[in-house]
């Protein structure tokens, strides 16, 4: 069987939507380990004398690894993934030597996580033939010609995975039917609400209509730009620049928040790389990206982020992940595991909008946050009396005791600026210094000598 050559083509949206629907019907994503799948990966690895084997499934933006043998990885970005190659091939994909393959540069990125010199990957299909995932074996050595019998054996193991999926799908279908029409009515009602629909969000993501704006975070003493917060906008061709509050709630409701959020992390990583290529001194900056509650509940998030860091070539300390208290509390067990894995990866962890959620001191000290961001609602009321001022002072002192940095959000007046410096708040952001702006505008700002902003003349009162 000849070594595969391939070219990734544009995704047929109708087929992809049907594929995703079939995947959702199985309920396989983000589920615990199961002996049946682990047995199949072990058999595949032993049969091929492989160094690693995986069973994975792909949604819109990620490849989630259900079972692995060898190197443990839970999740990878779908872009530049082996799954997309299998999907394009619509059948077994065989690469006996990555180093001599005509597309070795592209392949090297895809197999780097497995440190593989050769691999074989076959599709895992739904009951109606849609490719939902893949079963792959990896070797650190180039392989000799692989016999058709070996490929048929791997396909047979993939069929066993498909059988397990079908059992799961039937079980889910039975469960849904017992729940009655109430859930279906709720889903239909949500889908019939006003713009944007799920299809609008999908279209925007496919057409590259989402953009990141960036708001500088500065040292309040020197006014040097020390970081940036990435903020998503929708550059709609008819509605103009749509703020996040007009579409993020619907994205959360529809499940589109996952691929949109994953796009945001990848886009920020790539932009960090561009800024560092222009000036290596920019490597000292951190760019913070907001995580949704849905993203944060994925146990494989750290693996996904690590792959994006490797792909973009940036350091983990250059990326910050911001989350709110409300995204952590509902599932504390998962939260601790995800935060721990992200911390081990080396990315900065920022608690956003601190003070507006649970604000429980009983758990704050146990989470490995690097930064507390004081919510703008507290900053805006600092000049209204002693109580709001004391709240901000308490948060700053709390962060000091816990060894965290503090960033004050929403600074709009010179008086707020003065008070924060007097209380020892080192970092801040707000319209007094700079509004959220495009990456191109930030590039110009970063060219200021020493990245130091001029003394602010006056506040520009507006909403972010």
C-alpha-based Rg, rounded: 24 Å
Query: What's the N-to-C terminus distance?
Result: 58 Å
Give me the secondary-structure category. alpha/beta
Number of helical segments with 4 or more residues: 18
Mean pLDDT across the residues is: 89
Low-confidence stretches: 184-192, 459-464
Protein architecture, described:
α17 links the parallel β14 and β15. The chain is built from 18 helices and 15 strands. It has 464 residues and is an alpha/beta fold. The C terminus is likely disordered. It is 43% helix and 20% strand. The protein is elongated and about 75 Å long. The N and C termini lie far apart (58 Å).
Brief write-up:
The protein has 464 residues and is an alpha/beta fold.
Itemize the secondary structure elements and their pairings.
Blueprint: H1 13-26, H2 35-48, E1 52-58, E2 62-69, E3 75-77, H3 82-89, E4 93-95, H4 104-111, E5 118-125, E6 131-139, H5 148-179, H6 182-191, H7 198-206, E7 210-219, E8 225-236, E9 240-242, H8 248-254, H9 257-278, E10 286-290, H10 293-296, H11 301-312, E11 319-324, H12 325-328, H13 332-345, E12 348-354, H14 361-364, E13 371-374, H15 376-380, H16 386-401, E14 405-408, H17 414-422, E15 427-428, H18 439-446
Parallel strand pairs: 8-10, 10-11, 11-12, 12-13, 13-14, 14-15
Antiparallel strand pairs: 1-2, 1-6, 2-3, 4-5, 5-6, 7-8, 7-15, 8-9
Helix pairs in contact: 2-5, 9-11, 11-13
């Amino acid at each position: 069987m000849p070594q595969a050559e391939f070219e990734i083509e544009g995704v047929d949206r109708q087929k992809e939507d049907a594929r995703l629907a079939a995947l959702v019907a199985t309920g396989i994503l983000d589920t615990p380990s199961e002996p049946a799948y682990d047995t199949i990966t072990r058999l595949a690895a032993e049969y091929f004398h492989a160094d690693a084997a995986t069973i994975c499934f792909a949604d819109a933006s990620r490849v989630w690894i259900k079972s692995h043998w060898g190197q443990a990885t839970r999740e990878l970005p779908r872009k530049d993934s082996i799954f997309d190659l299998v999907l394009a091939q619509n059948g077994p994909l065989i690469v006996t030597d990555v180093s001599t393959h005509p597309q070795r540069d592209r392949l090297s990125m895809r197999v780097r996580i497995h440190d593989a010199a050769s691999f074989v990957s076959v599709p895992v299909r739904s009951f109606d033939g849609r490719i939902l995932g893949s079963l792959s074996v990896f070797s650190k050595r180039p392989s000799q010609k692989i016999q058709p019998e070996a490929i048929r054996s791997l396909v047979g193991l993939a069929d066993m995975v498909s059988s397990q999926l079908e059992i799961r799908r039937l079980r889910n279908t039975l469960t849904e039917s017992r729940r009655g029409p109430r859930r279906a009515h709720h889903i239909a009602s949500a889908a019939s609400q006003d713009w944007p629909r799920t299809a609008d969000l999908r279209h925007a993501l496919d057409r590259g209509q989402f953009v990141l704006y960036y708001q500088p975070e500065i040292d309040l003493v020197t006014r040097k730009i020390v970081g940036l917060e990435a903020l998503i906008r929708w550059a709609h061709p008819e509605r103009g620049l749509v703020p996040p509050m007009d579409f993020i709630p619907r994205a959360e409701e529809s499940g589109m928040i996952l691929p949109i959020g994953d796009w945001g992390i990848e886009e920020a990583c790539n932009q960090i790389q561009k800024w560092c290529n222009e000036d290596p001194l920019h490597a000292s900056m951190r760019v913070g990206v907001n995580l949704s509650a849905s993203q944060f509940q994925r146990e494989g998030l750290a693996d996904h982020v690590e792959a994006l860091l490797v792909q973009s070539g940036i350091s983990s300390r250059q990326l910050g992940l911001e989350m709110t208290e409300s995204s952590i509390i509902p599932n504390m067990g998962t939260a601790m595991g995800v935060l721990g894995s992200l911390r081990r990866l080396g990315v900065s962890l920022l608690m956003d909008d601190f003070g507006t959620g649970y604000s429980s001191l009983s758990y704050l000290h146990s989470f490995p946050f690097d930064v507390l961001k004081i919510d703008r609602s507290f900053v805006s009321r600092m000049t209204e009396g002693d109580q709001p001022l004391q709240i901000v002072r308490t948060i700053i002192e709390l962060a000091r005791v816990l060894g965290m940095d503090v960033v004050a959000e929403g600074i709009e007046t010179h008086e707020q600026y003065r008070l924060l410096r007097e209380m020892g708040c080192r970092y801040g952001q707000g319209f007094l210094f700079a509004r959220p702006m495009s990456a191109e505008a930030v590039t110009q700002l970063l060219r200021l000598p020493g990245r130091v902003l001029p003394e602010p003349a006056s506040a520009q009162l507006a909403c972010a």
